[in-house]
Specification:
69% of the residues lie in helices and 0% in strands. The chain has ten helices and no strands. It has helices at 3-9, 34-42, 45-60, 63-86, 106-129, 135-161, 167-192, 196-200, 203-207, 219-243.
């Protein structure tokens, strides 16, 4: 290998102060504190939500899911804007070089946006579409809401417990998240949803396999029954072809 190539491949030298962690994923907790460790893992919930959105968009191609995901990105942009306008530092200085501001908490704002949107979706959107819900289905919806708000509370509590934010920063983030989640839901429900049938009829939407499932109250049951019927029809066709 030539000296020129070795000089290109050689890693540059940095000082210790030149290294900076990605604060989105790095979560510290007091050593030996089991509760702190649990809260540190739970605080990664926004990353799980983001990964879930990407998976749903990739495999389901539903317009409402895409708009919901765009809302979370819009909510994050508002958080970044508020942080740079308020410029309030975090309550504790750690050994790492933290460059992000603390007001408002992005974790609490993200989780409250998500939980508030799910709350309105279940009690307004799904209730409006199907007023004769079975008892088991209502219990499932209440369970989903309980899990969403329980995780939201734990994430918010964990940000204060782990001293990443003050209680005021978490509270402001929660309020902003609830407000933005409410506004984004009604924007989607009242103004954007009526245009979904038009959007899916576009040529580019057909190429991307985008679809509108707004009028289907239980998409899981619908896909299950349609897939089962199609599988049975193909099985009967295959048997008839073999018998000929």
């Amino acid at each position: 290998m030539s000296p020129e190539t070795e000089s290109i491949l050689q890693a540059p030298s940095y000082n210790v102060s030149d290294w900076q962690p990605i604060t989105l994923t790095l979560v510290e907790y007091p050593k030996g504190d089991l509760l702190g460790k649990l809260l540190a893992w739970i605080s990664l919930a926004p990353l799980g939500i983001g990964a879930g959105f990407l998976a749903l968009i990739l495999f389901r191609r539903d317009l409402h899911t895409i708009v919901f995901f765009v809302g979370t990105l819009f909510n994050e942009c508002i958080n970044i804007l508020l942080k740079h306008c308020i410029q309030e530092p975090r309550p504790v200085n750690r050994s790492q070089m933290w460059t992000e501001y603390g007001m408002p908490s992005s974790h609490s704002q993200c989780m409250c946006f998500f939980a508030q949107y799910v709350l309105l979706f279940i009690f307004i959107r799904l209730h409006h579409m199907n007023n004769n819900n079975a008892r088991a289905e209502r219990l499932v919806r209440l369970f989903v809401l309980a899990v969403c708000w329980a995780v939201t509370f734990l994430v918010c509590f964990g940000r204060v417990y782990l001293q990443y934010h003050s209680s005021q920063q978490v509270l402001v983030g929660a309020v902003v998240g609830i407000i933005v989640g409410t506004l984004w839901f009604f924007l989607t429900h009242c103004f954007l949803t009526p245009y979904f049938p038009v959007v899916v009829s576009w040529r580019v939407s057909e190429l991307l396999l985008l679809r509108d499932t707004t009028l289907i109250p239980n998409i899981l049951w619908f896909e299950y029954t349609v897939t089962r019927q199609e599988a049975r029809a193909r099985a009967r066709k295959l048997v008839s072809m073999k018998s000929q």
